Amino acid sequence: MVLFNVSRVETTPFDGQKPGTSGLRKKVKVFKQPNYLENFVQSTLNALTPQKVRVREQFVLLLPEEVASLDDHIASSPLGLYSSLNLSQIDEGATLVVSGDGRYFSKDAIQAISLTTVLYCMLDYELFVGYWFCARQPEDILCHFIIIKMAAGNGVRRVWVGQDGLLSTPAVSAVIRERVGVDVSQLVSGSRATGAFILTASHNPGGPNEDFGIKYNMENGGPAPEGITDKIYENTKTIKEYLTADVPDVDIAAIGVTSFGGPEGQFDVEVFDSASDYVKLMKSIFDFESIRKLLSSQKFTFCYDALHGVAGAYAKRIFVEELGAQESSLLNCVPKEDFGGGHPDPNLTYAKELVARMGLSKSNPEAEPPEFGAAADGDADRNMILGKRFFVTPSDSVAIIAANAAQAIPYFSAGLNGVARSMPTSAALDVVAKDLKLKFFEVPTGWKFFGNLMDAGLCSVCGEESFGTGSDHIREKDGIWAVLAWLSILAYKNKDNLGGGKLVTVEEIVRNHWATYGRHYYTRYDYENVDAGAAKELMAYLVKLQSSLAEVNEIVSGIRSDVSKVVHADEFEYKDPVDGSISKHQGIRYLFQDGSRLVFRLSGTGSEGATIRLYIEQYEKDSSKTGRDSQDALAPLVAVALGLSKMQEFTGRSAPTVIT
Ligand code: G6P
Ligand code: ZN
């Protein structure tokens, strides 16, 4: 067994390492600065385990007589930190924490995280490291190696890596919660890993001049809550050193376990198949047989676009190998490190090829579009659902899934515990929740807010307008799950039509839903890369305006006389019903008498400048009026939103960058 040593590396803080809505995202060149990644990883490890550090301190301070005699290897450690550890206690899985610095140790991204944790929590700390993108570039591999080495340096007992470093965000969440075939007696927390560093910038473009990101997920499989991310940020401001180990690089292309001997004992790096755990989970949720019948039916045509993200690896396994779809139904399903130069965000603007194939672009292809199309983002947690020449808004999608889940998806056959949506997401889900008498929650933007509700058994299905849909099977949104949910609904509605009879289409499912529940016309305008100061001023102006509704209504009626009155305006604030934590400043809302809403918020996922998001929604109950074009229907409210916010005046922009 190869032995390794642990060392401390002095460092100084970097500005701006505040995790956003979903981890730390910056340009690659920012991450490439020496110690930039290491500082963040160490700050994260330091944010996670204070009690473990204290236990270690007590051990050293209170029980010096129990200190084991020095192992030769420990004695030769340049740190002289570990001489007091009793190896037999470590083998029993004791939580031994080295004060302060013991938990981190560092060198490169995947290969650095592991050694740091070995030092302070040995057998009770299993860390899982995954990343979404194609890690074949030397610097990407380096990034993994940095984290593995830091894990070893910090006392992590073992690191799990998806083969080639590839794992989708939902697969990471699934694997943290349950790794199939693992000797659970080795994991202190049952079959769960302790957490995960996910290396992704999600839907942001990739490549040397684009974005990189890292986020930490907790033992429940969900993103770190604000309490932890705030601590991480505080740590990044004061960090002075990090821990790393001279663990040799592991071949992350080869499945298997490589073990090393550190100052405190064994450290394992296990490379495993990226898809099998996830596939098994999907099979336990959905009726694959009925979906297979649908997909293999001559009448049903299908198209899936992974936008060259990691979803491609799962799409082939699930849609083609398991469910019998044609290989030709997969578009851009080879993961690429730069997403083929594209923007891996599944919306009508960026998923151009799919949009054209589905007959939705102006230059209609001649071929008849498929019945169903879907796309995913870079790390495969987002989804876009399309029918033939038809777009399903994410807000409608979650409402329709919730309305049909109990009938169409075996996992939900006993009914839903409750449903939830983010604040800017349309109220389509609210209407379903009311009808089905389900518990309902409105949370701030960011998937992490759903996790607490799910852990408390309060929420089964949830979704966001930002193309995120999911359930309590994991603690992340799940792009492939959403597609399987839709295929399940289609299979259920068509179970008697596959032989003869006309297929019920995606469009019909949505229109029938509107006829039953009413329609929430919805659109989002994004103003990307706006000057950060100007964006702040616009938001401050909107908050100030809220103090006088009379003044607001005067402005509104001056712009359009055909919209209803603003009856309430506020900054959204959320009190978590489970842990009581409060999240303030979660977006500015203007609520109208007829149920219409305007919401303004600043994006938390950009890496440059500011992005202003404007969400516009109008409810139409009258089933004879639910078939309009949404931009036409919303035109008056759009005019009001732009006028009220003085969008052009503040930002200099006469049009949004993206409309969804
Ligand atoms: C990420 C999160 C989502 C969230 C979205 C918001 O994708 O995982 O939960 O809805 O960011 O992004 P924004 O750019 O609007 O802050
Ligand atoms: Zn994503």
UniProtKB/TrEMBL annotation:
It is an enzyme of class 5 (isomerase). Its EC number is 5.4.2.2. Keywords: Carbohydrate metabolism, Glucose metabolism, Isomerase, Magnesium, Metal-binding, Phosphoprotein. GO terms for molecular function: magnesium ion binding; phosphoglucomutase activity. Residues 146-242, 277-386, 395-496 form the Alpha-D-phosphohexomutase alpha/beta/alpha domain. The keyword ATP-binding does not apply. It holds the Pfam family PGM_PMM_II. The keyword Metal-binding applies. Signal peptide: none annotated. It catalyses: alpha-D-glucose 1,6-bisphosphate + L-seryl-[protein] = O-phospho-L-seryl-[protein] + alpha-D-glucose 6-phosphate; alpha-D-glucose 1-phosphate = alpha-D-glucose 6-phosphate; O-phospho-L-seryl-[protein] + alpha-D-glucose 1-phosphate = alpha-D-glucose 1,6-bisphosphate + L-seryl-[protein]. GO terms for biological process: glucose metabolic process. One of its GO terms (cellular component) is cytosol. Its cofactor is Mg(2+). It comes from the Eukaryota. Belongs to the phosphohexose mutase family. Monomer. Catalyzes the reversible isomerization of alpha-D-glucose 1-phosphate to alpha-D-glucose 6-phosphate. The mechanism proceeds via the intermediate compound alpha-D-glucose 1,6-bisphosphate. This enzyme participates in both the breakdown and synthesis of glucose. This is phosphoglucomutase (alpha-D-glucose-1,6-bisphosphate-dependent).
